[in-house]
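TASK: fixed-backbone design
INPUT:
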């Protein structure tokens, strides 16, 4: 990655300076990445409607963004033994020496449905075995998660919900599983992980939940 300008990233867990990514010109984009970008733009258009006269459809798309964290909250509530009572992990200070920060775009396919949401992803890892991941759909931060060698934590800011626990994160917390895989660990048994030419994809075949994307070079 060449010398690029620094930008300040704001997140619920602190601030960090990261390299500002610049997309490759269209004629240099590899086919798989171009496909992801097309789907990213398509998802974006589903929210920023071309037909502004369709008020009912516009409100439906906006409501979907708000209902996404609630849907995931109910899914987790019935599927995992997450705890909301443990003390929160301290904010991740990504400006500390040793953190490696990457920024990119991702598409999240919800479990058990065909609904997708495209947004921005930030992933960071440290030599101490800590990881940080954030998924946002402007202007909303949808998911913020971090793991240490002994604890894990995930937050859903739109619903003001936080879950945490000791050890490794539950298998169904896909964003935390993605952070672990990006840090070099194996995916959960039965899951599929593919990585090719800068593009990556994590899928839980059991419920169809998928996260795919890429980081800016």
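OUTPUT:
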């Amino acid at each position: 990655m060449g010398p690029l300008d620094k930008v300040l990233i704001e997140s619920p867990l602190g601030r960090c300076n990261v390299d500002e990514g610049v997309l490759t010109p269209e004629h240099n984009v590899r086919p798989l990445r171009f496909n992801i970008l097309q789907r990213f733009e398509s998802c974006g258009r589903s929210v920023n409607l071309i037909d502004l006269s369709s008020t009912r459809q516009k409100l439906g798309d906006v409501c979907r963004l708000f209902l996404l964290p609630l849907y995931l909250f109910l899914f987790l509530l019935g599927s995992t033994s997450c705890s909301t009572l443990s003390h929160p992990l301290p904010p991740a200070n990504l400006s500390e020496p040793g953190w490696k920060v990457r920024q990119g775009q991702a598409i999240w396919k919800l479990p058990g449905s065909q609904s997708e949401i495209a947004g921005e992803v930030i992933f960071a890892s440290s030599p101490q075995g800590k990881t940080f991941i954030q998924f946002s759909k402007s202007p909303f931060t949808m998911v913020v998660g971090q793991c240490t060698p002994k604890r894990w934590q995930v937050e859903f800011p739109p619903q003001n919900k936080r879950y945490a626990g000791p050890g490794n994160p539950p298998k169904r917390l896909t964003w935390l599983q993605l952070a672990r895989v990006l840090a070099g660990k194996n995916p959960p048994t039965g899951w599929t992980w593919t990585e090719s030419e800068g593009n990556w994809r994590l899928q839980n075949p059991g419920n169809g939940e998928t996260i795919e994307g890429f980081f800016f070079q």
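COMMENT: The radius of gyration is 17 Å.
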